[in-house]
Amino acid sequence: MTNLIPVFDFERVVVSPWTDSIDTYGWMVLMAFLVTATCGLVGNYLILRRMALVGDAISHSVLPGLAVAYLFTGALSVPIMFAGALGAGLLTTVLIEFIHTRSRIKADAAIGITFCTLFALGVVIINVFASRVHLDTDCVLYGELSYLSRGANEIAPPEVLVMGGVAIVVVLLITLFYKELLVSSFDASLSASLGFPPKFIHLALMAVLSIVIVSAFESVGAILVIATLILPGATAQLISTRLSVCLWLSVLFAALSAVLGLHLSLWIGSSMAAAVVVSGTGLFVLAWLFGPHGVLRRRLGAREGEGGLEKDEPQAGAVTE
Amino acid sequence: MNHQGVISSFARHGKKIPALVLLLLVMVFASPAHAARIGDVTETNAWEQALRFFTFRDDGLRVALAGCMLLGLNCGLLGGFIVVRRLSLVGDTLSHAVLPGVALGFMWNMTKDPVAILIGATLVGGVAMLAVNVITRTTKLKQDTALGLVLSSFFAIGLCLVSMIQQLPTGNKSGLDKFFFGQAAAISEGDLWLLSGTTLVSLVFLVVCYRGLLTLSFHRGYGETLGLPMSWLHHALMLFTSFAVVTAMQAVGVVLVSAMLIIPAATAYLLTDRMHRLLIYAAIFGLLTAALGAFFSFLGNNLPTGPFMVLAGAMFFMAAFFFSPRHGWLIRLWRQRSRRLRTERENTLKAMHRVLENRQFHGESVSLLELAQLRRETLEESRHRALELERAHLATLSSGGNDVHFTPEGWQQAQAIVRNHRLWELYLTNVMQFESDHVHDEAEKIEHILGADAVRELERKLAFPQTDPHGRKIPGVRDAESAPQPRSELTGYKSS
């Protein structure tokens, strides 16, 4: 019990990753940052559209997509992986819609049924065709951020390159379609009347989400990817009520939690993905307690009888532009 | 609704469930069992394996199967309320968020002591639910975000704790990793006792508080005004759900345990509208799902049990989704189709009646040409419609298929539909004060759905009218005088 918490070795935990072993840990931090930032950017929209749990669903059902892609092709190159994930993500979206519009099952149960079944299917495929599907089920759950190694004549480890590419695409998409995404997230009918069909934007967002999830999958695993989707956005939205600010803030939080996560994982010896999420959780709790609309601020404001921020700034409103 | 009422009502509703459980308990404890792996034997012949499964020869298998069925029963029962109250994803959150609790329970004395794990997990589950509550109350984040947040961040904390444990010299063989995908074979006899204990407790809870839970699920506000302890019931339900989740985790795994809560109950939800029946069905589906899942995972050696259970449950769900007598999708499509066909048939009958009426009921047969002219359609279409009628024994075709005759049933139906139409027109003009040229379209729609009682009531309301707003005769219930008179054996009419 007493030796559960390892000794805090400052040299090993804080100094060495930035000096001696920067070649390993630098890539890990970069990868963690890219994953968390990309997921966080997409996650902002998920939170606004109240689809956080659809993200949960897709993150689980990407597994059978990968497994089937493996089964048919025997190897997993990046395009095949993306195709499998895209198929699975869209299938999930369509299935959820199908179940809850075609029967009396409510949306929440439809989500639960869909992703549990698809995930189970994935695990069964992996187990039954174990000889042909080389997916590590442990990796599916926990993710693995280490073993990033750069080949002799590569600029960066291939995983980092792929993730970086996805991140650039996501950033591009968000800058190009900022207005469309914004309007359709807040007011579906206005969006339709402006000529941005909300149905199409929804499906497109789901497609991007599946791509983002599958590229983050190997690093953080099926369950922690939900955290990387929700945590940065949720933390940012506790601090600002402007969407553009929230997007920047979530990138900042991604960077912070990646760095903190590295040190935490070195200290307690856990997987880095889990540590990144735990430090992200820590940041969320800090923002929750001390943020401009945080619990403590409001307590203090109420005690001083001035209402604090609540008076001069209507904070109850959702994020606006 | 006092407590007496509550207690006496459970006696009525809960009779079948305890009997089931008793049966199960007898099955489980009839022979002493010690934990052997289900998949110990290496032979892979599926038939052999199936035989072994159904003869219950292995003690390990008996324990595992009994455990699976108990958890299926427990999750199914609790899931009924979870699904009805739209808390399905709360179950999901709970199942992921208890992981730190499992780790903490393990740390208690560094063994997989089921009771310590249960206590730790339940405590953490409570904290998680509290966190969701507090986050939604004190921030502007919505419930789904809060659920996702708690789910994943608690899970991450749990992962960190587990990896800390596994670095300890004693922690390597902890078997905590069995918690992720679930292996029924990992159920030990102690777990079995715990499973039956929690099942029994939640059974008693459901039966005793059935009425209160019903109020909580459907009329929470009403229950609060009555002073019933609604929030206590809610917390108790959550508590028992986390018991169920934690005890089920060994067999099904963290990720899929919520499926055991949702899927059997959702299947039952498609089959019935009554809560007590829903609970019974959900329990049965839970049992079947668990047993089937255990069977499949037993067939292939050492395959994880959880996914197979979920797939078995999904099979039941799909069957119910498509074929449930009342809410099944295909059944409803089929019903819609048959209703559409009936409407078409009735419209044809009405058109035939109209043709005869235009001739003041001279002659008995309606030619396809007349029908086509009246309905402004091609001869082929009319022939198709006439054939439809013949198939339903409402009309016969003669003279080379060019003349249509009513059968007695067809005649009666034609009269009924004309009666419905005209009565409704009359009702709209006389009672509702519609203009008489605005009533036809309304009557076109409702003539196909008016029931016999409604028609009789309409007749009474309108004082048994003889003519409709357009001056046409309304065929009365016993009114057969306007029937085409000549009848012959050839055309299928009886001469009466």
What does this structure look like?
- The complex is a heterodimer of chains A (321) and B (496).
- Chain A is mostly helical and 321 residues long.
- Chain A is 76% helix and 0% strand.
- Chain A is built from 14 helices and no strands.
- The longest helix of chain A is centred in the C-terminal third of the chain and has 42 residues, at 198-239.
- Chain A is globular and about 60 Å long.
- The N and C termini of chain A lie far apart (51 Å).
- The model of chain A is unreliable at 306-318 (pLDDT under 50).
- Chain B has 496 residues and is mainly alpha-helical.
- Chain B has three domains: 17-33 and 44-327, ABC transporter involved in vitamin B12 uptake, BtuC (Orthogonal Bundle); 331-406, Arc Repressor Mutant, subunit A (Orthogonal Bundle); 410-481, Winged helix-like DNA-binding domain superfamily/Winged helix DNA-binding domain (Arc Repressor Mutant, subunit A), CATH 1.10.10.10.
- Chain B contains 22 helices and three strands.
- Chain B has a three-stranded antiparallel sheet with strand order 1-3-2.
- In chain B, helix 4 packs parallel to helix 10, helix 14 (257-271) packs parallel to helix 16 (305-323) and helix 17 (329-358) crosses helix 18.
- The radius of gyration of chain B is 33 Å and the shape is elongated.
- Residues 1-17, 24-43, 485-489 and 492-496 of chain B have low confidence and may be disordered.
- Classes of the chains: A mainly alpha (321), B mainly alpha (496).
- The interface between A and B is large, with 69 and 62 residues.
